[in-house]
Amino acid sequence: MSSIFNEKLIFPQENGKDVELLVNGDEFYSRYETIDGYTAIYDSDIGEFCFAEKVHGCLVSSRITIDRKPPKRIKRHLRENSDIRRKKFDSRFTLMQPELSPVLPFDTLRTFGPNNGLLNGRRVSMGKVIGLTIIVEFADVKSAVTKADVESMLNDDSYSSHGNHCSVREYFSNMSNGELDYANDVLGPITLPKNRQFYVNRPFFADVLNEIVAQGIELSRYDSLGEGVIDAISFMYAGRTLYQGWLWPHNHTLDWSSNGYSSNFYQISSLGLDTDGLSIGTFCHESGHMLCRFPDLYDYGKRDGDFQKSAGMGRYCLMSSGNHLDSGKTPSSISAYLRDLAGWPKRVKVNSPKKYEIEHGDYSSVYIYETDELNEYYLIENRHTKGLDSHLPSSGIAVYHCDTLGSNEHQGGTPTAHYQCGLLQADGHLDLERNQNTGDSGDFFDDVQGIALSHDSVPSTLLWDGSDSGLSIKNISKSEEKMTFEVVEN
After folding, report:
1. Cα–Cα distance for residue pair 228/154, rounded to 1 Å
2. What one-character DSSP code corresponds to residue 247?
3. Most buried pick, 1, 299, 374, 450, via CB within 10 A?
4. Which of 242, 324, 237, 199 is nearest to 18 (CA)?
5. Do 143 and 239 touch, CB atoms closer than 8 A?
6. How far apart are CA 150 and CA 143, in angstroms?
7. Distance separating alpha carbons of residues 41 and 53, to the nearest angstrom
């Protein structure tokens, strides 16, 4: 998934000029508004965006294009009823998940149950993985980005072209402490016969794969586990990112097979019009789903009975909205919580009262405070504004309250409805939970003398059931590449 929060984006129209709209949502469910607040829907019959009307709780096209003056009956900021939003969301969200085993109850879907906080499905998060990336162009949209440009962005060492911090391969090698070597073969471009707008509502993935197979590709190269399953398939299409339908960047399952090999997960993102548009952030985010089965650490606002929006982990994790930092060219690192679930770093327990030193960019370790609850614990991380964290809104010690049975859909913070991984914001404002921002300068602990966190501080280290976790931290040093903190008797 790639989430968008009230961003102004340019959209092409088949029979009209490009339009600027405000966008909220993700590939599962999204909403578009004109700059002056009228909800818009793309009407494929007319080939333009039209003002939306609400009929029986559902948004429909008024067939009045948004370049005209809206009639009085058209209202601003229309939203569909929650039950309709959820049905539409669920119909797309299930595509991100493989079918469950008959022995698993439905409630184990998403991040609950035996997957220890990760999404259901086949993982390839260790060892050498070779992905298959296919460049796709349309009858009406081509790109100046070449196959060699994409190969460099995905695979090169010391990659810094077009303002990117590193290549995709370097990103995952760094985050995994060398446990995952993810390279990509790049093929194409494959030119589709129709204009790009046609493929908003019609997926082209099987057609493109059939064309690649017809060219004589050897699929065994892309099955690292020897199971007859292709590990990772990525499509990169020409033009700006089109946040609509099947062209919205996403990761889903794909039911396709050829020559004894079947597909599993795929992802799609855009190339841009030229090399200035090349960025690693969204490709890394969707690869996090596809390879590692990382969940989104943001709030969809449309599932699990919760329709209130929140920012989840904000800009502080690739799998929240950190993939958009620096226009996607320097995405946030993967938070310690997800790196730990992937099994990449060693665990350093901080349950003993003493002084600890913690280094920014040491992705070989995670610092964990274990509680009496097996699924609930705290992680401590140095997030200094350097390297992949250069564009974070805060700098210092990050403390995460983790529960593998939680959901970042639940911002309420109650014993039964709370985040899977939540940042204990140092200023105590709960801005992320209240959807006030995606992070600010008061979120991390920096240069604190005396008690910084305890059972009666704000924020506190109480467990979700309200009992004392026992964690108490004092004397946090100034934000630097190497920081110290003390764990004391509570």
Report:
1. 24
2. G
3. 299
4. 242
5. yes
6. 12
7. 9
Task: State pLDDT tens for residues 67-78.
Answer: 999 988 899 999
List pLDDT tens digits, range 181-239. 999 999 999 999 999 999 999 999 999 999 999 999 999 999 999 999 999 999 999 99
Side chain identity, residue 42: Y
Higher confidence at residue 203 or residue 87? 203
Query: What are the beta bridge partners of residue 382?
Result: 397
Q: Using CA atoms, how far apart are residues 210 and 203, in angstroms rounded to an integer?
A: 13
Map tokens 């009929």 to a residue.
Answer: 55
Rounded Cα distance between 481 and 467, Å, is 34
Quick one: residue 460, left, alpha or beta (phi over 0 = left, psi -120 to 50 = alpha)? beta
The size of the chain, in residues, is: 490
Q: Within 10 Å of residue 345's Cβ, how many Cβ atoms?
A: 20
- How many CB atoms neighbour CB 439 within 10 A? 24
DSSP state string for 297-347 = -S--SSBTTB-----TTGGGSTTTTGGGGGGGTSPPPPPHHHHHHTT-SEE
98: cis peptide before it, omega within 30°? no
Number of neighbouring beta carbons within 10 Å of residue 235: 24
- CA dist 122 and 117 (Å) reads 14
CB 49 within 8 A of CB 13: yes
Report which residue type is found at 66. I
Work out whether the CA dihedral 224, 230, 231, 234 comes out positive or negative: positive
CA-closest candidate to residue 425, choices 400, 408, 449: 400
Enter the tokens of residue 95.
Answer: 């595509």
pLDDT digits (tens, 9 = 90+) for 230-275: 999 999 999 999 989 999 999 999 999 999 999 999 999 999 889 9
CB-based contact 429:442 (threshold 8 Å):
yes
Closest C-alpha to 135, from 82, 188, 173 = 188
Token pair recorded at residue 488 = 């004391």
Q: Is 192 left (phi over 0), alpha (psi -120 to 50) or beta?
A: beta
pLDDT of residue 306: 56
Collapse the DSSP code of 289 into the 3-class scheme (helix H, G, I; strand E, B; otherwise coil) and give the result. helix
Q: At what angle do helices 281-292 and 168-175 cross, to 10 degrees?
A: 50
Cβ atoms of 427 and 393 within 8 Å: the answer is no
- Taking only the tens place, the pLDDT of each residue in 408-452 is 888 888 888 899 999 999 999 999 999 999 999 999 999 999 999
- What the block records as the tokens of 269 is 């993102």
Give one DSSP letter per residue of 125-153, joined into a string.
-SEEEEEEEEEEE-SS---S--HHHHHHH
The pair of three-digit structure tokens given for residue 388, joined into one six-digit string: 């992949």
Task: Read off φ and ψ for residue 388, nearest 5 degrees.
Answer: -65, -15
